[in-house]
Design brief:
- The complex is a heterodimer of chains A (343) and B (264).
- With 343 residues, chain A is mainly alpha-helical.
- Chain A contains 15 helices and 4 strands.
- In chain A, a hairpin with a 3-residue loop joins strand 3 (155-158) and strand 4.
- In chain A, helix 3 crosses helix 10 (216-242) and helix 4 (90-114) runs antiparallel to helix 10 (216-242).
- Chain A is globular and about 65 Å long.
- In chain B, 37% of the residues lie in helices and 23% in strands.
- Chain B has helices spanning 50-57, 80-84, 103-110, 119-123, 127-147, 162-175, 192-207, 219-225, 243-248, 250-257; strands spanning 10-21, 24-35, 39-43, 65-70, 73-74, 88-90, 180-184, 211-215, 228-233, 236-241.
- In chain B, helix 3 (103-110) packs parallel to helix 6 and helix 5 (127-147) crosses helix 6 (162-175).
- The two termini of chain B are 30 Å apart.
- Classes of the chains: A mainly alpha (343), B alpha/beta (264).
């Protein structure tokens, strides 16, 4: 049954646009999907290496801006030189967004080697705030508060079949689903490998990890780069789907949203950010017919506090424990001996 | 089977090492060597500087002065994982393991140094990656068999009784494939049965060709397994020699029992 479960979910997710007629709900699904990708990337850092990056939205925003600017082009003056970039295809923007975000992840990763714990949290928040201020004030490049508008949708080229531009929501839904699956597979491969074991080791006991020969800095930086590139990819999806981005994309609340998704779902589990993402992505939609906006936020916060109090390790680990306690002892012995993975 | 003077060439040399924490002198002038295949016991009263010495040798602490060399490689300035990759591996005084992992998972982490698969092989799940992982799993099982924890493989590390947690710490160090092992109080807090088990394990490890430097308070154990003993007090070496000689050394007895106590 466990083996059939991923296939069932995949078929279910693929079928959604076929029976879901409400375009608003499809829109919410796409936005939630994008934030789930960002939350999964945060989970790689927070859940597996134990580093709380409270500036994670910076990578998301950098990816969004880099992708949008690559696609739209720009004409700026930099240190007395005129830098002109002409428009490139949006799909190249996605790659550039991931690369630029990955590079900033490298910088932050190197920094995290010097400062850990609370200091790293402060540095990461400051980093996000600096990127927001740059986006707000470098008007020549980013249009500042006027926002980057008319960001074109992705165009996918299929050899022999011509080009296909993603104009409608269904197409975007499938793109987000495909990239989300890739992100999921990348993370699951990483964390179940020697690389992932090194990350988990440095989270649990850094001194011991280095004593058995693990280069702690290397794996922290690797996790930061992969995580940032993934968040950058999510940012690019966001920019090209909404077709407009402004410096508010760097707001702290977006990082908080990602952290909530990861913590409530279960950090350090593969399914955690997805479960948390679905709950907190759809909660406002479910509450909207019943409650005023202010009440919605109160309920949102209340639910979060309740989950953290009642299930401190998150929903997915709680479900895993519940399943384990229901299994007979024989099945336990025959089953997987690795408790860190959640599917 | 103490080897004594029959030991091989010098593998670890600690030359005039000093460690100062501000005005406090943790190590004043540490100077000794360990030869290939030896078991050397490093003893001394609490606060003598034994663990500080371990921390200096394994790169967790920078010495204020002096040099540490392992097989002619200067260790000063190297990071702990770089020193481990030279084959110089340590255990810790306190229980040290990856608590939320299984016993088997712990040893797999310990085998990190042996893994060769690259990022791309991992991401693309290439056959080489699967073969490498299967090999690591085999080696993990073998190490668990050597330390006698094979029946605990699926248990969470945190759920093991104390003695077995310490054995798991040794298994982790063995997984890093040491050519020299630094054991920091391996039997502290253990009952006589558990201590005997660890002593047998230490002998087995030495028999496999691993040189051992041992810090321990359990005198019968140190005297029994060591070929040579180095005694530290107040950051200085006060005696060095075979166990039988050290046991009778008046300076050593004074260091352990105090000035007022006369020899019987």
């Amino acid at each position: 049954m466990t083996r059939a479960l991923p296939a069932f979910w995949l078929v279910f997710l693929l079928s959604i646009p076929l029976w879901l007629q409400d375009q608003y709900l499809l829109h919410i699904l796409i936005i939630t999907g994008i934030f789930i990708i960002a939350a999964m990337s945060l989970n790689l850092l927070l859940g597996y290496t134990g580093q709380l990056s409270l500036g994670h939205v910076a990578f998301f925003g950098i990816g969004a801006y880099a992708s949008a600017l690559t696609t739209l082009g720009f004409d700026i003056e930099l240190f007395g030189f005129r830098v002109v970039h002409h428009t490139w295809p949006a799909i190249v923007g996605l790659l550039v967004g991931m690369i630029v975000a990955g590079l900033s992840g490298y910088v932050i990763g190197r920094l995290s080697f010097k400062v850990r714990g609370a200091y790293f949290v402060i540095v990461s928040i400051s980093f996000a705030e600096v990127t927001r201020l740059v986006a707000l004030n470098w008007v020549e490049l980013t249009q500042g508060p006027l926002a980057l508008t008319n960001i074109p949708p992705y165009t996918l080229g299929f050899p022999g079949l011509g080009d296909y531009t993603l104009w409608n929501k269904t197409a975007y839904y499938y793109l987000v689903l495909a990239l989300g699956l890739i992100a999921y597979v990348v993370i699951s491969r990483l964390v179940s490998s020697r690389i992932g074991r090194a990350m988990i080791a440095l989270k649990e006991n850094e001194t011991l990890a280095s004593a058995v020969g693990i280069d702690v800095t290397r794996y922290l930086v690797l996790a930061a780069v992969v995580s940032a590139a993934m968040a950058g990819g999510a940012g690019s999806l966001y920019a090209h789907y909404l077709k407009i981005i402004d410096p508010d994309i760097f707001l702290f609340i977006y990082t908080v949203t990602m952290v909530i998704m990861v913590i409530t779902g279960g950090k350090g589990t593969l399914a955690g950010p997805i479960v948390g993402g679905v709950i907190f992505g759809f909660l406002p939609v479910i509450l909207r017919p019943f409650a005023a906006p202010a009440v919605q936020w109160i309920l949102y916060g209340g639910l979060m506090i309740a989950i953290v109090f009642l299930l401190p390790q998150g929903i997915v680990p709680a479900i895993q424990r519940w399943i384990t306690t229901r299994k007979p002892a024989g099945a336990l012995l025959a089953g997987s001996s690795d408790p860190r993975e959640g599917r | 089977m103490p080897a004594g003077g029959a030991a091989g060439e010098v593998v670890l040399s600690i030359a005039h090492v000093a460690v100062h924490f501000g005005g406090l002198v943790a190590l004043a002038d540490l100077d000794f060597t360990v030869c290939e295949g030896e078991i050397v016991g490093l003893i001394g009263p609490n606060g003598a500087g034994k663990t500080t010495a371990f921390n200096v040798v394994t790169g967790f602490l920078k010495p204020t002065a002096g040099e540490v060399r392992y097989r002619n490689t200067l260790l000063n300035g190297l990071k702990p994982h770089e020193i481990t990759s030279l084959g110089l591996v340590r255990t810790f005084q306190r229980t040290s393991m990856f608590q939320t992992n299984t016993v088997f998972g712990n040893v797999l982490i310990g085998l990190h140094r042996l893994g060769r698969s690259t990022l791309w092989e991992t991401l693309l799940a290439l056959p080489r990656e699967k073969i490498a992982e299967a090999e690591l799993a085999d080696q993990a099982r073998e190490i668990l068999r050597v330390v006698g924890l094979e029946r605990r493989a699926a248990d969470l590390a945190a759920t093991l009784p104390y003695g077995e947690q310490r054995l798991l710490g040794m298994a982790l160090a063995l997984a890093a494939r040491p050519s020299m092992l630094l054991l920091d109080e391996p039997v502290s807090g253990m009952n006589p049965n558990e201590s005997a088990r660890v002593m047998r394990l230490v002998q087995t490890i030495r028999a496999s060709g691993v040189t051992i430097l041992l810090v321990e308070h359990d005198m019968p154990m140190v005297m029994q397994v060591s070929d040579r003993i180095v005694v530290l007090n107040y950051g200085r070496i006060i005696a060095e020699g075979p166990p039988a000689v050290i046991q009778k050394n008046p300076d050593v007895i004074r260091a352990y029992l105090g000035e007022g106590k006369k020899r019987a």
